[in-house]
Amino acid sequence: MNIQQAFATALGFQQSGQAGEAARLYGEIVAADPQFAPAVNNLGLLRANDGRDAEAVALFRRALSLSPDSLNGWNNMGALLTRLGRTEEAVRAYRASVRLKPDQPAALNEMGIQLERLKRADEACDAFARAATLAPGDAEIANNHGAMLRMAHRLDEAAARFRRAIALNPHYAGAYSNLGSTVKDKGAFWEALQAFRRATRLDPDFAGAHWNESLVRLLLGDFVQGWRGYEWRWKHGRLPSPQRSFVQPRWDGSPLQGRRLLVYWEQGFGDVLQFVRYLPLLARTAGGTAEGQPVYLECQRALLPVLRRLPGTIAVETGGPLPDFDVQIPVLSLPALFGTRLETVPARVPYLTAEPELAARWGERLKGLDGLKVGIVWAGSPTHGNDKNRSIGLAPFARLAAIPGVSLVSIQKGPTEGQAADPPGGFPLLNLSPDIKDFADTAAIMAGLDLVVCVDTSVAHLAGALGVPVWVLVPFAPDWRWMLDRDDSPWYPTMRLFRQDRPGSWDDAIDRLEQALRSRASG
């Protein structure tokens, strides 16, 4: 039997599921003719199917060195590298395939998925657009293209692509959910609710759609259904903190009767700062006495110095040894257990306090400032999913520095804090950022300020928890906690909100903030 006949026989074995026989015969062919690329490639496929990944990669590389124009070889290599999580290499493999034959919608789609994972959104969007042109009837490609357009904040185009995906596949729950998120970004909240509900009717276990629906309900003030749906966050799997696994049961809100409760952190600094307000309430009621018993709080290291001062609470750092406890609950599940409605939000402030000696030391740094002492924060964490919409940079604050009777103080932390060393146009700014070590320092500085002006980030929550006057710049499609059509917050009595009047433009909000600050300074 010659090489070609042997290859045909091996291919027949492979196609009929007789992988062992096929592998044996491919091996004999490769031994007889090491330059026969199709047998090398197919042996690589069988090794990949067996989980022998290193052998498979080596065989695919060998096959491609023998036949560099093999579309099948490059696509096989791309698929294996994708499975192995070697995303950059997978993109190179798919790109090589597409260079050889540009009209491959499947390869372009796979390349787009990998580019998205690498957060190369523009390249991914281009790949999906090319795939969609080649395969206008493919719902998955239309949906993927829409997702990239949404990331680029091209919301109308994104919504059109999701609607196209739904028209092609009316049972496509993912496209309904993506459409809901997109029209939510545009401010069409009732339409978003309808889309999320359609997604969950099609797929009752679609955690992402359930969770996104809960966020819209909370945004609209429907706390009853909102908190209930918010529990889907753990199944959604995209939180910045994992769900914890403890031997001790989760607390169901029943009387503790001496049981020791651990409340543990989740998500971001701002989330924890906002919802630790419930811990003093728990401490007063948990033991059934006037004094109560302490509640244990596990929190992030950066928050520990300020949360140690939380009444009725013993705070410990995450990652270290935990105290003995009997029941546990994540901190953002407390509002549901308390049955919190809009009219029953526990909004008494301050529930956090600055350390007096630290506040006195920072106060010395602020003594030389004239007029209103205004702390400013212009950016949140760049890893936050909505950071592009909420962070504004330092330059817009130059207008505030020009107001007579206003002294600006930088309390910005993070990658952009260096901007304070050289403010745009050289406007006057006391730069405290380099010397701030943690939230306890920030809280102590706030004790000596008249006002904090910031974007939607953890500093807003810290100021609100301390009872410090704070003005927050809020994006057009806001985070659920800022709700809609109001310039105050039910969570923080000392907070005032300045909302965008249209997506992407801060001009009107900053105009209004500047006018308000001029009025306050002149008063």
Care to describe what's here?
The chain is of the alpha/beta class. Helix content is 50%, strand content 9%. It is built from 25 helices and 10 strands.
Give the rounded overall mean pLDDT. Answer: 88
**Sheet with the most strands?**
6 strands, parallel
Computed structural class: alpha/beta
- How would the global form be characterised? elongated
Instruction: Name the helicity range.
Output: 40-55%
Total helical elements? 25
Give, in spatial order, the strands making up the sheet with the most strands.
Answer: 7-6-5-8-9-10
- Low-confidence spans: 287-291
| Binned strand content | 5-15%
Please state the CA-atom Rg, rounded to the nearest Å.
Answer: 29 Å
Number of strands: 10
Instruction: Measure the end-to-end span.
Output: 99 Å
What characteristics describe this protein?
alpha/beta, 523 residues, four-stranded parallel sheet, six-stranded parallel sheet, 25 helices
How is the topology of this model organized?
Elements: H1 3-15, H2 19-32, H3 37-49, H4 53-66, H5 71-83, H6 87-100, H7 105-117, H8 121-134, H9 139-151, H10 155-168, H11 173-185, H12 189-202, H13 207-219, H14 223-230, H15 233-236, E1 261-264, H16 269-275, H17 278-286, E2 295-299, H18 304-307, E3 313-317, E4 327-330, H19 334-337, H20 356-366, E5 372-377, H21 387-390, H22 398-401, E6 406-410, E7 430-431, H23 439-446, E8 451-455, H24 458-466, E9 470-474, E10 495-499, H25 507-522
Parallel strand pairs: 1-2, 1-4, 2-3, 5-6, 5-8, 6-7, 8-9, 9-10
